[in-house]
Design brief:
The complex is a heterodimer of chains A (about 280) and B (about 350). Chain A is α/β, with parallel strands linked by helices. Chain A has one domain: Rossmann fold (3-Layer(aba) Sandwich). Chain A has eleven helices and eight strands. Chain A has an eight-stranded mixed sheet with strand order 2-1-3-4-6-5-8-7, sandwiched between helices. Chain B has twelve helices and 15 strands. Classes of the chains: A alpha/beta (about 280), B alpha/beta (about 350). Strand 2 of chain A pairs parallel with strand 9 of chain B, so a sheet runs across the interface.
């Protein structure tokens, strides 16, 4: 048995150093998540980080907790499987715009339907960074990439509107530019019971599809009087063309997967057992 | 021994999984294996187990990945087209050395094919449909009794070797009802110090199939997998030799086609023809040594499959004088016929 090598006051691995480019937005997310879990006084054995593939996929290697690095786009089903076996763990699932919104985009709706009690962080850098600069589902229309030499001719997704349609029980957007706000949002997301989605604008400093300078120009916090239980208002802000709003868009309390499974166990206890049903056919 | 009951193959497999301690099942509907998820959805909660209908075959195999990483006994089941979709996940499970049980109740292919039983996925099962150097154990039941017994065995083998065990059945086996005696739990306990559990006071485990640095680490892992595969090959070959000692004509088959061959052997013996049957119980590892022994006296070896000829390659590799090996198969969900097998065997004698 190895003893913990790094100082207990950090969740950042001392053994494996990130290979992200200097200035990458993903460092901000790593730092904010580290601070959040420290503030919440979690221990490494209480947390599991699940990741898929891409720059975001490395995240699980860099975090001092249980970690599971799975297949491309399937971090959510993998985390769902883990969570059903270990409901006591705080599961943080990490993906990017390629992993989470392109190849794995179909899983978000179903994690939302199950309301799996986990936090899904999507770090959107608007590009495929690890494979060196191909278009992603959130690369702006017209932007030139390795696979769009004449400019991207598909429209960019509106992920927040998508998440609202799926009725995800906690939806927030934040940016790597403001650590304090990201930490505040992550804290609320982790404390939220059910599926929480934290969508982080995490600029790629190498391929610059949406650089920090541009991000600062277009983002603005949601108005203070935004009612986070008002889904139609949240849709309105999600569809805003002139401003990319940040903050908590929507939150709803509902039963989560593990609670629903407990109900199923109770129903199975009081209903006829399979052997009783089989006995009737003897 | 318990008393005999009547069960459908798919349901017997489900009950056997529960007997083996499987408490997590993730699956997606596809015919002809739908009785497995239906059975598990009702039965698992009775024993405190979790059933989830996944949004896709791909989601299901990745849920298996997550549950296995946490140390659980976990299963998924599907039929041929669904098995294709699971291949990436199976490769990653192999790379992360995670145990699980996967069931393929084969149907006619390629493509959507049809829903009748077939054996067209032998190559995929034994050569691996996913990327990279990996293997999984492949068990081939031929009766409802064996669907149950091999399922219990599958969970022990998976945990012992940290490997995927594939139960390769077909639509006929899944759908027939037969009398069986449910197997007892084996009671074997496997420690899982690698799982995502029990990290208080030590560094939490990390599970990944990514082996980037240093350069040689992936080859080392592959060589360690190879050692496991070699150990499995030397210890876990299973087969049945039926009337092979003096057999001049040897039939080789597995699963449903082996049942048809057995009927042909019995009828040929009644007519005085020295026929025998060699039946696979493991398709990987392939029981080559046992087949070689069983084929010693054979003038002709007829491989019978519900495909256009896949297992025959392993048969040819296993026996001396492979020019003795002949083939009869039906595909697309059609069954080989006893009369045709007999006709061919008799023709060899003329």
């Amino acid at each position: 048995m190895k003893t913990i090598l790094q100082k207990p006051e950090t969740f950042k691995s001392s053994r494996i150093k990130p290979v992200w480019c200097p200035g990458c937005g993903d460092y901000g997310v790593l730092n904010a998540l580290d601070k959040t879990f420290k503030t919440l006084e979690f221990k490494p054995e209480n947390i599991a980080v699940v990741s898929g593939i891409g720059c975001s996929g490395r995240f699980s290697h860099y975090f001092n907790s249980y970690s599971l690095h799975g297949t491309h786009g399937r971090a959510l089903p993998t985390a769902t499987g883990l969570k059903t076996v270990r409901p006591d763990l705080h599961v943080v699932t990490v993906g990017g715009d390629g992993d989470g919104l392109s190849i794995g985009g179909g899983h978000i709706a179903h994690a939302a339907r199950k309301n799996v009690d986990l936090t899904y962080i999507i770090m959107d850098n608007n590009i495929y960074g690890l494979t060196k600069g191909q278009s992603s589902p959130t690369t702006p229309l017209g932007y030139t990439t390795k696979t769009a030499p004449y400019g991207v001719y598909e429209e960019s997704l509106n992920p927040i509107a998508m998440f609202l349609s799926y009725d995800i029980s906690f939806i927030a957007r934040t940016t790597s530019a403001d650590m304090k706000i990201m930490q505040k949002i992550l804290t609320e997301a982790i404390e939220h019971k059910g599926f929480s989605l934290v969508y982080v604008m995490s600029p790629c400093v190498t391929y610059k599809a949406l650089p920090y300078s541009k991000l600062k120009e277009i983002t603005s916090p949601l108005p203070e009087d935004h009612d986070i239980s008002d889904k139609m208002a949240a849709f309105k802000y999600a569809y805003s063309e002139e401003t990319m709003y940040t903050g908590i868009f929507y939150r709803k309390e509902k039963s989560c997967l593990n609670e629903r499974l407990q109900e199923v166990f109770q129903m199975a206890e009081t209903s006829k057992t399979t052997s009783e049903i089989m006995a009737e056919f003897k | 021994m318990g008393k005999q009951i009547l069960m459908k193959g798919n349901e017997a497999l489900g009950e056997a999984a529960i007997i083996a301690g499987c408490r997590f099942y993730f699956g997606y509907p596809i015919t002809p294996q739908n009785e497995i998820p239906a059975y598990m959805s009702r039965r698992l909660p009775e024993v405190g187990g979790t059933f989830l209908q996944a949004e896709s075959e791909i989601a299901a195999v990745n849920m298996v990945f997550g549950a296995s990483a946490a140390g659980a006994r976990v299963m998924t089941s599907t039929s041929s087209p669904g098995m294709s979709l699971k291949q990436e996940g199976l490769s990653y499970l192999a790379g992360a050395k995670l145990p699980c049980v996967v069931v393929n109740i084969m149907r006619g292919g390629p493509g959507l094919g049809n829903i009748a039983g077939a054996q067209g996925d032998y190559f995929q099962a034994t050569r691996g449909g996913g990327n990279g150097d990996y293997r999984h154990i492949v068990l081939t039941p031929a009766s409802v009794q064996e669907m149950a017994e091999l399922t219990v065995l599958a969970f022990d083998l998976a945990d012992e070797y940290r490997i995927t065990v594939l139960i390769l059945g077909d639509g006929y086996l899944g759908q027939i009802s037969e009398a069986l005696t449910l197997p007892e739990p084996t009671g074997k306990v496997f420690e899982k110090p690698w799982a995502l559990t029990g990290a208080k006071g030590r560094e939490p485990n990390k599970i990944a199939s990514l082996k980037l640095v240093p350069d040689h680490v992936l080859e080392e892992m592959n060589l360690s997998l190879e050692r496991t595969y070699n150990e499995i090959s030397s210890r876990e070959c299973r087969s049945e030799s039926y009337l092979t000692e003096d057999a001049e004509y040897l039939l080789v088959a597995y699963g449903t086609s082996s049942r048809i061959c057995r009927a042909a052997v019995n009828e040929l013996r009644e007519e005085g023809v020295k026929a025998g049957l060699f039946r696979l119980i493991t398709a990987w590892p392939f029981p080559a040594a046992a087949l070689k022994r069983a084929s010693l006296k054979a003038k002709k070896i007829l491989t019978v499959e519900m495909s256009l000829g896949q297992m025959i390659e392993d048969v040819r590799l296993s026996v001396d004088n492979p020019e003795r090996v002949d083939f009869y198969g039906r595909s697309g969900g059609m069954l080989p016929e006893t009369e045709e097998i007999k006709r061919r065997i008799k023709a060899y004698g003329n």
